[in-house]
Here is the input.
Amino acid sequence: MRKALVSIACFFVILGSSATPWAWDQTWSGAHQSGKDSANSILPKVNKGSKITTRFSNPITSNSSPLYTFDDNTGFNAQLTAPSSNAFVDLFIAPSATGDLTTVTLRQDTDFDGNFDYAYSLSSPVSGVCANGFISADQGTWTNKHYFTWTADTSGRVTATEVPSLLDLAGCYCINSSCGSNLVWANIGTILKDLGGGIVSAIQNQRTVTITATEVTGTEILYYGQQSSSMGDTTGVYFSGTAHPEQYYAGGGGTLPADSEVLNQASDPDSFYYQLNQLSQNVGSSSTPVQCSITRTVTSVTGQDPSTCTDTGSTYTCSLNSQTYTDLASCQENCIPPEGPCLVHETVSDLCTSIESNPNCKLRDEQVDGVYTYKNFNSTGLAPIPSCKTVTSQQPGNCGEQPNCTAHKCFTDFLNHGECYAWGDTSATVLCSLPLPSGATLIGRQECSGVDCPCPSGAHGGSLRFYLYLTCTDNYTCSLNSHLYSDLASCIINCTATCVRTVCRDWWEKKRTYLCQNSAVYDFSKAQQRAGHIQNTFNDGDTTMIFQDYNPDTSETTDYSVTLPPREDVERCKESCRVRVPIEDTQASLTGNTSMYRDTINTFREVLKPCDGDTCPVGSGETLIEGCQCTNYFLQTTSILQVMDDASKDIICSSSPP
Here is the structure.
């Protein structure tokens, strides 16, 4: 994690640096020299761990200082989104004349807002230091011992809690004058880190905190970090493990749930375990994921639903109006819903049939209406809840032609339509006649005496007979609503009804992913022939690289020559030397500390030191064991780890130990 953060920081720092001598050069020598100049300007600023911590780690994980470009001219805030602190733990110690720590003061920033809000001081002297606590004895002695561990409450506030025996502590050693002189001042950095490490471990047992850096100054140590449980936007970051791993380290023990994590990731195609496992399984074979779907579709169409008429033996019953009919035709003719006759048309489109029947394809995942019923080749036991869909359609009715007639027999109408005769002479010649309207039908005549009969020719008087007649117009009637329309087009447009049907099913859509084994296996034999030929003909000179390419299909070869840039000898390793360093061993156990059963606490420890050029930095009192060279202690390291692993196991063979 730290390496990744530093890499990101380096990118932005280099990008923003204006003084770094970036330059494009068209010659090999010029470009080579520009690269060296750039590297030489940066290397002195990052060639030590402390410089990397100051320049990158602290600005990225806290707001104590900005992140600067390499020319130190531009600084900016590069703090990550998780809550951080300038320093969330500050531990100060001071020894007495007896070598016991009589002043141990702790300050904490529990909410990571950059301000110390909790302080704690020990009331007992520290005579021995442990990985998870300390030992308090009578000052200057190793008698009347009391044992303490570091504990923290749910807010992360640390206190010292007394425990019954040394068995509750680990990695203890004596620091007061009963074990040697000047032990604290000679090992101040180690003591601070061991005490601080135990305190921070107690905090991490309650809070998810990431330590990013430590800083030792005299008798004080500062811890920098972040409250990683409050990270910001983690979209796209795959979550694995547990949100609170600290629970498995309580008391220095516990077992991580590795088996359950493997089980969870094995069924998750997005997990790293699944992807790596699939990759290993596919070595030597070729498989392709193939996707398909099965979709159910319902629509409303014109027609009569036969399910509305039920055969009850001798009759048919309509489910819509509960009426019975003697035959099916009569029932279907009359059993019509209010919205008109309509059916639900259902189809299932199965695009997976051919894949399912392919023996080289195996179902990997299946989603039914968004619910995973099959995942990673295994059934999940889940099923979607049945759901319903409502389908509608506009169903047309019938427009029947029907005449609309009006009878005209009102007295007032005679002036427009009738016949005029002389007075009292109804059989005489008609003086004038007003014809019927166009399309009218005569249904009779009626006498009307005493009424002047105006004739267009000017003749007046006489008697009148007026017509009784009908006028009819063509109309169209909608079978759905019985409305009349004056023309057929208007009837067709308006004579419709909305057909609504609600359909419920167990599923509507199945999305499947199959993993299909390809019949063809990749053949790399030709690529191997080509690579082998290039390797056999390769010749690396000082300024030129030549080789011969080979075409396995035609057996033709092609010669290539590439000009190389100037090269210079570089170190193939960072040389180191082995030095014997004098130390004081004051380890404490149940039987006492080292000074009680050895003549002296002075001993030696072998240390690897990086060389300064060809010179081994041997300090005062140190002895050179092995000079500067490229060293490899892998075998020694693995041997020591194996011995430690064997020592942790029970070597008693009998069931009843002596």
About this structure: The two ends are 49 Å apart (CA to CA). Residues 28-46 form the longest helix (19 residues). Residues 15-23, 410-415 have pLDDT under 50 and may be disordered.
